[in-house]
Each structure stands twice: as structure tokens, then as C-alpha cells.
Amino acid sequence: MSLAVLNDGQTVDADHEPMITRSRRIGRVFAATGKRHGRDAFTPLYLALGTRLHPRGPHTDDDAAVAAAVSATGLDPALTAALDDADYDAAVAIAHRASQTALGGRGGSPIIAVDGRGFSGPVLTAPPHPNRAADLLDALLTAAATPGFAALHRPYQGPPVFTAPEDDH
User: Fold this and answer.
1) What is residue 159's DSSP assignment?
2) How does pLDDT run along the chain (169 residues), one tens digit per residue?
3) How many Å is the Cα radius of gyration of the chain?
4) CA of 62: how far to CAs of 14, 25, 50, 51, 132, in Å?
5) Are the C-beta atoms of 42 and 33 separated by less than 8 Å?
6) What is the DSSP annotation of 50-115?
């Protein structure tokens, strides 16, 4: 899904405008990557970019993070030119519409699909302990495979942290 496409035509406050711009630019890189390298390149780039962007500091340079992620995954460095290439916007919009169709309505990030059923989430504010990660995945897959399951939600627990809790077992 694309935060930029989701909010097209909406008034966005000044605090959120940088996120919309970032979404639009990075979506273009993923569209270019898919066009040039196919779907198999998406996940490695997503993971490499996520580890560089999610623990954002006040001086995080998105362009440098994208370049480093592209390099780390062995993709063509020329893909970074897509950041500012509006020719990829249509492909981003098509991918966004597919995410909304899988979800069955309008929704934000993250969106996952399991056996053709789309869900918004899961949202984690910290990674699970490695001994519990498979349990979490199994629980998500079980819930998603239950035809009547629609939602599970609790209030937001704060910004993400990037170290697993020591006492979670």
C-alpha cells in the first residue's frame, strides 16, 4: 500500500506531509525494482530499506538510505533515480489499489494477505523474542484462516523499539 496514494486528494497536516512525500518517492523505487528485477527483488529491498528507515533519527537521509539498501541487495544503483521519476506513480497506484482490494476496503499500513484474505496489521512496537516469533506467526495464520475473523486491535503502545525485550519468553 502507498500512504501517498491513500491520501491523494486529502488535506494532510504539515507534520505528516514529509511522510507522504517519502512514501511517494520510495514507492517509485519499489515500482522500478519490480519492473527491472521482478517480484523476487521486493522482499530483500524491503528488509534492507526497513532497517535503515524505521529507526529514524532527526538526520536520517532517505536518499542515502535507499542507495545503501539498493547496494546491500546487489541491485542496480541506477534504481535510486526512480525516487524523483513520476513515471512510476501509475505503477504505485495500481499496486496500492491491489492492496485495498485484498483488504476489502480502505486501510493503511501494514496490509498482509493470507490465503486471499487481507488484513491491516500486524503492528508491532517491538520485535518478539526469537523463541516466540514462530508462535506469533502461527497465531496470525490461524486467525487469518478463520473465515469469520475480522479484527483484533488494542490501543497504540508507542513508537517502535528495535531490540527484543529480554524478559519476553
Assistant:
1) S
2) 888 888 888 888 898 898 899 999 999 999 999 999 999 999 999 999 988 988 777 778 999 999 999 999 999 999 999 999 999 999 999 999 988 988 888 887 788 888 878 888 888 888 888 899 999 999 989 998 888 888 888 787 777 777 655 655 5
3) 17
4) 18, 9, 11, 12, 32
5) yes
6) HHHHTT--TT--HHHHHHHHHHHTT--GGGGGGGG-GGGHHHHHHHHHHHHHHHTS---S-EEEET
